[in-house]
Structure formats: structure tokens, C-alpha cells
Amino acid sequence: MGPHPAVAAIRLAVRRVLHDVLNHHCAQDRPEAPLVLVACSGGADSMALASALAFEAPKLAVRAGGVTIDHGLQEGSDLRAAEVALRLRALKLDPVDVVGVQVGRTGGPEAAARDARYAALDAAADRHGASAVLLGHTRDDQAETVLLGLARGSGIRSLSGMAATTGTDGRYRRPFLDVDRQTARTACLIQALPVWDDPHNTDPAYTRSRLRHEGLPALEKCLGKGVVEALARTAQLSRDDADALDGWAAEAEAAVLDEAGALDVAGLFALPAAVRRRVLRRAVIAAGSPAGSLFARHIEEVDRLITAWRGQGAIHLPGRVGVRRQGGRLVIRQG
Fold first, then answer.
1. What pLDDT, on the 0 to 100 scale, is given for residue 231?
2. Concatenated DSSP letters for 43-66?
3. 3-state secondary structure of 294
4. Distance CA 91, CA 39 (A)
5. I need a surface site. Which of 37, 61, 114, 249 has the fewest CB within 10 A?
């Protein structure tokens, strides 16, 4: 008799990602076996991921290790991180790192913790020469991300949610984006894997927690089951559309950019709005405006220099970047 369906589902998801990592590794002609790390908080999603990695990696001659991050935001967090490391070692993962981080305040508590976590994961991957880091985001997490993007009105790119592969050279992999949270929890139960439920995940002070425990249940009560699956499908469809528009914008930028780095206003005006605004965003980021500080309202202001020109002055953007219209050109400069 085969494994429980929940266990089989998580193993299959990890196996597919490991095959992709292995193929990419072999294409680089690297002689040693690739190392794949799992980022594990001790919660059900990441423990299910760690167990599947421990089971599948040896069959493919892939080395498997783990990293757990101590954010230092709760009393006893260092002890919990050490306990998670013991669980990972019990699964025969090696190496296993416990990394403590200092969480700043930029962007709010959730964003600051995320930034600190990814910086630590990047450092761990570099230190060990890892080919990939697996993250335990599930289909439910994807649905929450889509709703948060919708609420912020940030456009189609934010509706595309999390990509299955991100980071430099495809470092971060998310095998569980087609796996629901309950499947991961069931897999832990079947395998008698101890899990830790982070109290921050139920703390109403956090936006994602309120969405998880109040917003999504309310939507399902109103619209019926299947909301999470529909939102996950929306993410993939939006990602496909956004990728196509980004590609179009890259080609259009080359056509309207002159040798001095200015943009031709007439050429921009002829473009569809969705493409034109992407060209403008690419240009101001290239000039030094930080992508994380650049919002839709900033690009709309720049766009009005093209579509609603009334002789207005320069637009000042984050990163000390200025945009002004001069002689049929948009001049974008920092300083």
C-alpha cells in the first residue's frame, strides 16, 4: 500500500522541483551533487516540506539541508529555533543552520521580518553553496497574497502573487503553491511530525492574520467553497499577462529611448497605457528610483506629462529622481 494521499501529494510536489534543480545544476557542469536547503519555521507547511525533501533528495542524489530563522520577536524564540534544528537533524538533513536576525522597522513589522529573513536565507545559501532554497508557501498563502494585492490597488503584477521560482538564478523555489494548507498539516499528522503554531499567525494585529482568519472565511461563506482555488488560478493568469506586458514594454522602451537616455513623448503617447506605464516605471528605476518605494500614483503623475501636458513642472520621485518634459522628450535624472 502506498503512502497516504496527503504525504504522496507533498512528496510529488517536492520531487518535481528537485528534478528541475538537478537539471539546472547539471547544465552548469558542476561536478558535485547539488545542495538544496529548506527554510523551516517549525510550522506545518515547512515541516511537511522538510520531511518531503528528506525523503526525496537521497533518491536523486541531491544533498538536503535546512535553515531556521530566529527573528527574536517572541520570548523563548531562540529555544524554539534550536528545537526546530533538532527536528531537521532527526530527518537526517545536513547541514542545518540556526540563524538569528535583527528585525528592523522599515515597511512595517511583516515587511521588516520578511526582509531580515530573506537576507539571512541568502547568506546561508551563499555560505553553503546551495543550488536552491525551498519555501513552504501554500495555495492558501497564494490566495491571501492575491487579495492583499487587490486591496492595495497595485495592478496586475501584484495580483500575480508569488512565483514558483524567484531570486538570483532561480534560488527560491515554492513547491507547494498547488498544495493547500490542510494537506500539509495532514501530512505532518500522518507522519507524526511535531509542529509549532506561531502565535503571530493568529494575531489580529497583523494584516495577513486578519485576512486568513476573518477575510477569507467571510468570502467563502458568501461565495461558497473554491475561493482559494479561484484566487490561485487568478495569480497564474495574471502572471502570464504581466510577463507578456513586461516583455512588450522592454521592446517598446528600446524604440523610444534616445542616445542621451531621454524618452520620446510622441512614441510613448502611441503606446497602450499598460505598456507605456511599464516603460516609464522601467526608466525611472533605471535612473535610481527604488522599486520598493515606487507606487502607482508616482507613475500616474509621470504619465500625465505625456497624456495631460499643461506645462507642469518636474515630477519628483523617490531616490531623488526627477522627470520633466523638454522639447518633446522626457528627461529623467537623479539629483
1. 93
2. SHHHHHHHHHHHHHGGGGT-EEEE
3. coil
4. 14
5. 61
This prediction has a pTM of: 0.85
* Exposure b/e, 9-23, CB count within 10 A at least 16 = b: bbbebbbebbebbbe
Query: Cα 252–258–262 angle (5° rounding)?
Result: 90
Any residues with CB less than 8 A from the CB of 100 and at least 6 apart, and which?
Answer: 69, 70, 72, 78, 81
Say how far apart CA 38 and CA 22 lie, in whole Å.
15
**Residue 170: strand, helix, or coil:** helix
Length of the chain: 335
For the chain, the straight-line distance linking the first and the last C-alpha, in angstroms and rounded, comes to 68
Strands 35-39 and 63-70 come out as: parallel
Angle at which helix 44-56 crosses helix 181-190, to 10 degrees, equals 60
Kindly state the percentage of the chain with pLDDT values over 70. 98
The burial of 112, by beta-carbon neighbours within 10 Å (0-12 exposed, 13-18 middle, 19 or more buried), is given as middle
43 neighbors 170 (Cβ within 8 angstroms): no
209-233 confidence digits (pLDDT tens): 898 888 889 998 998 889 999 999 9
Cβ distance 285 to 291 under 8 Å?
yes
Distance from C-alpha of 178 to C-alpha of 9, rounded to nearest angstrom: 10
Phi and psi torsions of 34, nearest 5°? -70, 150
